[in-house]
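User: Just a sanity check before I run the rest of the batch. Below are the structure tokens for the first item. I only need the designed sequence back.
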């Protein structure tokens, strides 16, 4: 898994079958997909469309909260953005571009 908030890559499972089994578990979805946060965003009518994603502003590398570190996220700091733009901003924020 590429964590776009930290720039770290980690193994989330050792084989496809176990991965699929965990992806369908509520704890996994809440931990890695932030399903509770996404529900709150949808309730606030912030809905990502095709080719879009949710983005934290500011990026955690620039002082924003990092949910992977246990920081709570206020939905006012989440915006809908094109995936390519968010990935570029993440790479820039983490100093991964030249």
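Assistant: Here's the designed sequence for the first item:
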């Amino acid at each position: 898994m590429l964590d776009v908030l930290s720039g770290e890559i980690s193994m989330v499972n050792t084989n496809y079958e176990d991965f699929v089994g965990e992806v369908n578990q509520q704890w996994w979805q809440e931990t890695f997909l932030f399903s509770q946060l996404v529900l709150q965003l949808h309730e606030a009518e912030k809905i990502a469309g095709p080719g879009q994603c949710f983005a934290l502003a500011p990026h955690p590398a620039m002082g924003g909260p990092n949910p992977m570190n246990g920081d709570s996220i206020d939905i006012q700091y989440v915006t809908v953005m094109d995936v390519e733009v968010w990935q570029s901003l993440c790479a820039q924020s983490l100093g991964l571009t030249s």
